[in-house]
Amino acid sequence: MRVRIQNSNIKGSITPPSSKSMMQRALAAAALAKGESTILNPCRCDDATAATGIVQKMGAQVIQDETAIRVCRNEEKSPEQVIVGESGLSLRMFSPILALNPEPVQINGRGSILKRPVHNILEGLEALGIECKNPGKGLLPIQLEGGYKNNTAVINGALGSQFLTGLLMALPCRKEDTTLEVTNLKSIPYINMTIDLLKDFGIEINHDNYKTFTIKGNQQYKATDYTVEADWSSAAPLLVAGALKGKVTLEHLNPYSYQADIAILDALKKCGTSLHWNGNSLTVEKKGLNAFEFDATHCPDLFPPLVALAVHCNGDTRIKGVHRLEHKESNRGIVLQKEFGKLAVPIRIEGDEMVIPGGRLKGGITNSNNDHRIAMALAVAGLNSKQAVEIGDHDCVAKSYPDFFKDLRKIGGGVAEFYFKSQFV
Ligand SMILES: O=C(O)C1=C[C@@H](OP(=O)(O)O)[C@@H](O)[C@H](O)C1
Ligand SMILES: C=C(OP(=O)(O)O)C(=O)O
Questions:
Q1: What spacing in Å lies between the alpha carbon of 373 and ligand 1's midpoint?
Q2: Which ligand 1 atom sits closest to the C-alpha of 22?
Q3: What CDD domains does its record include (predicted)?
Q4: Does the annotation place 400 within a ligand binding site?
Q5: For the chain, give me the number of helices (H) and strands (E)?
Q6: pLDDT at position 421
Q7: What is the pLDDT of residues 149-182, one digit of tens each?
Q8: Domains 2-16+229-418 and 78-217 share a fold
Q9: Is 373 annotated as a binding residue?
Q10: Which atom of ligand 2 is nearest to the CA of 301?
Q11: Which residue owns the Cα nearest ligand 1 atom 3?
Q12: Could you tell me the distance, in angstroms and rounded to a whole number, from the CA of residue 339 to the centre of ligand 2?
């Protein structure tokens, strides 16, 4: 399917969907607990569905109500195979959890995840004594068995934090204590989110400045009621829409959240946008559109929406952390350059920095490259384009935000969805 976005003014208020990062962690933690946990304000995107399928395979009973999901694991099952959908987090978080069980388990996925590397998972688990097989030779599927045997390991954090999140969730269930030496950790705020959530489930993690993590064994997950926050990553493109084309209020956002992408507020301030909090509602209004400098090394998912903002700013915007983009749902640095190139924006990549020249967007035909954040970024950039921006394969937004285009229309976005190639642009 395709969508056409027209120049439009933005006005209105929206509650962003719940955080898929928190939701997947909550499902895993609830499945590791004894008794019934209730996940309130659950996220119902594709990645959350993938995580739900995995905990069910682990033996958890999952009951979906309208406003909550109840999770209870009365029996431990040894699944022969689990499918992580397209979710990087489900792959990297559940691998160490599934590895607690010595029975062999094969982990596979579909779509974009089949192109994302698995070597850091295998290296880390092998260092902890898990027997790993990789018929996919660097890619999925992987097979794990034998259980944890070693109590110390060096973990490479340079590729991201998700695998460390999985280890921090799994290792408290071992009998022995474990010490991890983590090198060059990236996406650090996501680790703060993990540690905070684990505290709610009764698990304690100690670390020395994100380098040495000491994980006591024999800890018991406690069932709890956990409320998932509204998602700052999904809020980001909507905030950019307001900053570019009028005014938008986002409801139920936590101003003190551990979510990495709350950092969008710094970029919006630098850009000159007017920001106003009223309790948990944030109103963003177009004011300046000044080029800005921003370091996205630890919040890489902000790259696409920030590029959508930057293409309309006065001057060259510089965003640091391009090396963090290579192994996402697409190679996002290259894809942003290619797709915005189709709209006549000559983005440059200089070492680890992306340089985005500001100006007026021309319009044209683009493709999401099956990457939800690219689809959303092209859409909000299109709100301020001279001519329409068409986006192919836009339905990939279901990975994190199934109602994105419906919500964009609600706040005034000119959104037309259709099935065939357009002659409009
Ligand atoms: O832990 C998480 O929920 C996530 C961590 C980040 O990945 P990396 O840690 O691989 O950078 C982020 O890009 C991803 O969308 C979600
Ligand atoms: C990179 C992302 O997710 P994941 O790695 O969990 O697939 C994302 O949501 O932008």
A1: 13
A2: 3
A3: EPSP_synthase
A4: no
A5: 12, 24
A6: 65
A7: 999 999 999 999 999 999 999 999 999 999 999 9
A8: yes
A9: yes
A10: 10
A11: 21
A12: 19
Q: Where are the beta strands (DSSP E) in 198-306?
A: 206-208, 212-215, 225-227, 246-250, 274-278, 281-285, 293-295
Q: What's the confidence (pLDDT) of residue 200?
A: 98
Question: Can you list the positions of beta strands (E) in 127-269?
Answer: 131-133, 142-145, 152-156, 178-183, 206-208, 212-215, 225-227, 246-250
Taking the domains of the chain in order of start, what are their residue ranges? 2-16+229-418, 78-217
- For ligand 2, atom 7: residue with the closest CA: 88
Ranges of the chain whose pLDDT falls below 70: 421-425
Q: Any residues with Cβ below 6 Å from ligand 2, and which? A: 87-89, 301, 328-329, 373, 400
Q: CATH fold of 78-217, please?
A: UDP-n-acetylglucosamine1-carboxyvinyl-transferase; Chain (3.65.10)
Predicted pLDDT of residue 180: 98
* 3-state secondary structure at position 121: helix
Residue 418: predicted pLDDT = 85
DSSP state letters, 223-237: --EEEPPBPHHHHHH
| 301 carries a ligand binding annotation | yes
Give the model's pLDDT for residue 422. Answer: 60
Structure token digits, residue 405: 């285009």
- Model ipTM value: 0.99
Determine the angle formed by the axes of helices 88-98 and 119-127, rounding to 10 degrees. 20
> What CATH architecture applies to the domain 2-16+229-418?
Alpha-beta prism (3.65)
Residue 301 known to be catalytic: yes
